[in-house]
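Design a sequence for this backbone.
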């Protein structure tokens, strides 16, 4: 096994694009206890900047209320639920990434809906009323939370209009009309709002240039470009679930980079690009989401995604997600980093590991990222490379060996370093495996839940490593790593300053 010598001098600064946004399903779910407990845990251990979800104008949030009673007719807006939702976000330190949709039934031009929660996907029958709704909502948010705060919330127009499931007949011209009217309405409220789109799904590359041409031709506001990325093939259905093929994980980074290439030379060239949804599977019932494989698969994306886009939002932070109805089992292949009742999945730990990385990048490779923080702590994120459906099955082990520089905060060389390792793989830090071995209880008992919580935590090891000063004056430790199948591991290395008093003798603890 060859030794990789990690440079002592940083090569770059670690991008935080991976944590700038996280996804959620319907915004109204934030009215539920399980959801709020999951969001609080996610923020405590990871800490995302923004949260993007569907349905700010769904009738379950009930912003638009029209009345015709006793000779009185008109429109009134209700902020009862929206305020509770946004308050809950801000209380845990996360801001909305506002996606404008679905269409309120009272304003919809048709009855076409999507998913179990029946979000209406038709254009407004009266654009003026839609504009009034958008502007009233933004003005209310500014009045309640303050201009400086609300202007930090990006505004995205609709969701995946290239799919007939989300926009009637996937009518591009109709979406462009909606986008123009909405973007102008947003800017009328405050010109400093950041508004963008077209929020298209994978496979919609043909939308980007026409969108840019439309924006240029009509001088329509556009401050960012948004789109989605997934890597699975068609769904192979079974009751309450699906199986799908997976492309190579590099497909995600290729999808991230494609819109920028297509938009070169257009009016949208150089604008911020936000991947407002990404994951392996686009289905909320694919068991790959629950596995350690999912974490290892996505590790290169978290490490490299910031090279090509300004944010990329994992879809989603919680399994509270009801597109296909209420899940029938605690593990059901949901999108979430967490199951219902806050059981952590391996991909949760991938994100939590990233949150513990330093800011200065010392090295990056196909299976590792090495960083250092201001205190001299060096962090190593390592994973077993995986390749998707068409690649051979991964071996039982993956090995790498690093020569890691260590130094105290003042730059002096320590004699040793404390090495703390957190491990997630097919067995460790893996409640899904434990649940399978339990017999897959659909609704676990409290005792079973307690066992799953315990099984979900990473395995931790620690040891002291001797530091050797080389001819260049840099102290280094040898760090050989053996990773199990589908493993993601975090190693934290702290230079030791020995404060042991001279009179202590641990050999005497037992009095021998």
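Sequence:
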């Amino acid at each position: 096994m060859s030794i990789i010598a990690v440079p002592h001098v940083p090569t770059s600064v670690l991008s935080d694009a991976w944590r700038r946004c996280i996804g959620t399903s319907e915004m109204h779910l934030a009215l539920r206890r399980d959801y709020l407990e999951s969001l609080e845990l996610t923020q405590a251990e990871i800490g995302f900047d923004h949260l993007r979800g569907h349905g700010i104008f769904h009738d379950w949030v009930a912003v638009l209320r029209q009345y015709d009673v006793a000779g009185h007719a008109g429109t009134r807006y209700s902020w009862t639920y929206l305020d509770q939702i946004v308050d809950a976000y801000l209380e845990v330190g996360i801001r909305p990434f506002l996606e404008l949709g679905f269409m309120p039934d009272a304003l919809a031009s048709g009855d076409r809906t999507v998913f179990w929660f029946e979000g209406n996907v038709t254009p407004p029958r009266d654009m003026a009323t839609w504009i009034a709704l958008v502007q009233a909502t933004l003005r209310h948010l500014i009045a309640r939370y303050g201009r400086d705060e609300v202007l930090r919330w990006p505004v995205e127009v609709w969701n995946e209009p290239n799919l007939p499931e989300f926009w009637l007949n996937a009518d591009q011209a109709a979406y462009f009309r909606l986008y123009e009217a909405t973007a102008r309405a947003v800017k009328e409220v405050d010109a400093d709002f950041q508004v963008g789109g077209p929020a298209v799904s994978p496979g919609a590359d043909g939308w980007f240039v026409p969108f840019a041409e439309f924006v240029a031709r009509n001088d329509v506001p556009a401050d960012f470009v948004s789109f989605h990325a997934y890597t699975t093939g068609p769904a192979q259905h079974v009751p309450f679930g699906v199986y799908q093929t997976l492309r190579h994980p590099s497909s995600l980074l290729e999808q991230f980079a494609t819109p920028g290439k297509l938009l070169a030379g257009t009016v949208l060239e150089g604008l911020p690009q936000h991947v407002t949804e990404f994951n392996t599977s686009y289905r909320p019932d694919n068991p790959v989401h629950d596995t350690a494989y999912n974490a290892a698969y996505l590790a290169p994306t978290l490490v490299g995604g910031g090279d090509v886009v300004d944010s990329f939002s994992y879809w989603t932070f919680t399994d509270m997600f009801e597109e296909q109805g209420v899940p029938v089992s605690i593990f059901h292949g949901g999108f979430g980093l967490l199951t219902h009742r806050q059981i952590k999945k391996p991909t949760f730990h991938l994100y939590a590991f990233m949150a513990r990385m330093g800011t200065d990048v010392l090295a990056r490779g196909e299976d590792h990222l090495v960083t250092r923080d201001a205190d001299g702590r060096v962090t190593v994120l390592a994973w077993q490379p995986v390749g998707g459906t068409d690649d051979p099955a991964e071996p039982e082990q993956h090995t790498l060996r690093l020569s890691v520089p260590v130094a105290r905060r003042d730059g002096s060389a320590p004699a040793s370093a404390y090495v703390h390792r957190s491990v997630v793989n097919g067995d460790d830090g893996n409640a899904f495996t434990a649940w399978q071995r339990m017999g897959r209880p659909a609704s676990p008992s409290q005792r079973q839940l307690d066992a799953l919580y315990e099984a979900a935590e990473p395995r931790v090891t620690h040891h002291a490593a001797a530091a050797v000063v080389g001819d260049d004056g840099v102290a280094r430790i040898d760090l050989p790593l053996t990773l199990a199948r589908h493993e993601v591991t975090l190693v934290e290395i702290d230079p030791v300053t020995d404060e042991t008093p001279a009179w202590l003798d641990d050999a005497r603890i037992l009095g021998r």
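The mean pLDDT is 96.
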